[in-house]
Specification:
By secondary structure, the chain is α+β, with helices and mostly antiparallel strands. Helices cover 40% and strands 24% of the residues. The chain folds into two domains: 73 residues, no CATH class; 49 residues, no CATH class. It has five helices and five strands.
């Protein structure tokens, strides 16, 4: 899903205390949280701990409703956002994007020899075939 971010600021999550980005989007009611890069370990540690607690209670046939709810609330609070500002043609292979911005000048410089023109054509095919809606050649 694509979102337009209205505002983002770095905060500590009010309930979990993990440093994250509080993001407000016009398409969503309220706010969402995304973990900062330096906080991925504490986030995963908390998530694993909550999950382990409710699964342990489930295995022991104890009441685990409260622990499971807590784990599900934790999962719902955070969104995994992927930022893709730039990537190589090789890395984009197999993916589809709404729009692709292709800068082929590095290809032109690197692949000047006549025998490498065929390779350049293949690379450009891969780059241009990633977009489903539009291509912008730079």
């Amino acid at each position: 899903m694509e979102l337009t971010i209205d505002s983002a600021r770095e905060v500590r999550h009010p309930r979990w205390g993990i440093k994250c980005y509080e993001i407000r989007c016009s398409q969503l009611d309220g706010k969402i949280y995304s973990v900062t890069e330096d906080q991925s370990k504490p986030y995963l540690r908390t998530k694993t701990s909550l999950q382990r607690e409710y699964k342990m209670r489930q295995r022991k046939k104890l009441s685990y409703y409260k622990e499971r709810q807590t784990f599900k609330e934790f999962e719902r609070e955070f969104v995994d956002l992927k930022h893709c500002y730039a990537m190589t043609i090789h890395k984009s292979q197999g993916s589809t994007y709404k729009y692709a911005f292709v800068n082929d000048s590095p290809l032109r410089v690197a692949l000047r020899a006549r025998h490498e023109l065929k390779y350049r054509g293949r690379m450009l095919y891969v780059a241009f075939s990633r977009a489903s809606h539009g291509i912008y050649a730079l």
